[in-house]
From TrEMBL:
Domain Dienelactone hydrolase positions: 86-295
Alphabetical keyword list: Cytoplasm, Hydrolase
Subcellular location: Cytoplasm, Cytosol
Name of the protein described by the UniProt record: Carboxymethylenebutenolidase homolog
InterPro entries tied to this protein: AB_hydrolase_fold, CMBL, Dienelactn_hydro
One of the Pfam families matching this protein, by short name: DLH
GO MF term (any one): hydrolase activity
Family: Belongs to the dienelactone hydrolase family.
GO cellular component, as recorded: chloroplast; cytosol
Amino acid sequence: MGLGSAPLSTAPPIYKLHENHLRPITRASPAALRFVQKSIANSWNEKRQKLAVGCSKVSVDKSIIDEACELVNGTELTIEDEGEVIPAYLFTAVKNNNGTGILLLSDIFGFHDSATTDFAYRVACNGYNVLVPDLFRGDSWRKDRPQALLEEWITKQKPEHVARAVFASARWIRDELSAAGISNKLGIIGFCFGGGRVVDILAQDQDAYFGSGVSFYGTRIDSSVASKIKVPLLLITGDEDALCPITKLEEITKSHDSAKVVVFNGRGHGFIHRPTAEEDADAEEAFNIMRNWLHDGLLVQK
C-alpha cells in the first residue's frame, strides 16, 4: 500500500516500504507553463544570474536524471523584503510543470550547498517550482570552521530572522504563481536545521501559505508547537540519528493528528540528501515517500 493512501496514525510506526508506488506526474496547465516562461524571460531584479539549465548541463548526480526530468531551469535571484535582501535559487520544471511551489529549507551548510541544490533540482524534475532561500543572511556554516564554534554559530541564527526569510520567500513565490492565475497551496521541505524549522514555520503559518510539509531528520524541534499545525506533516528520520530523537517525533504525533512518522532502521543523520553510497536504496525510498506525500497533499487535494 502506498504511503499516501495509508491511514494516518497517532502512534509513529517504525517501518520501511519495500515497493515504490509512484504517483503519475501531473502535467502543466497553460497558466503554469506561462509562469515558467515568465520566470525565464522577465528580469525579477538586476542581481539575478542564470545558472546552468537543462538536465544534460547541470552538474548534478546522474541518478536524478530520469524520464520525469525533461528540462529544469535554474535561476539565482534576490527577494526584497522591507529593505532586506534574501538570496535564493529557483528551480522550475518546464515541460511537466504542475504549477505548484515548494520551499526547500537547507541544512546548516546553506542554500548554495551542492547537496541541497541537487535535491531541489530533483524535486523540480517531478513537476514543481522549488525555491531555496538563504536562511542565514550569507553566513551559512562552513566545513572549514572549528567544530567547537558550531553551537555559538547556531545561537546566532535567530528564529525570527529565519521565519522572516521563509515567509518573505513564500509570499514571493505565491505572488508569482497568483500572477499567472494559479492559487495552489505551497509545500515546504526541510533537512536537519531546515527540517526543524519546517515544524516552527507550519505552526506560525497564519496566512495559510502551505498545504503540506515534509521534515527530514529535523534538529532542535520544538514539539510543543505541533498542536498549532493545520496541515499534513511527514517526518522522516533514522533510528540511529541522535540529532533527531524519535521521542520528539512521537510527541508531535500525539498533538497533531495529521502527522506521519517514517523511521529507517540502521540509518543515521543526513542519509537522504547526503547519501554515502552512489546507490542508496533507503535514500531513494525516502524520496519516493516524500514525492507521494506531496502529490497527494498538494495536487490531489487542491
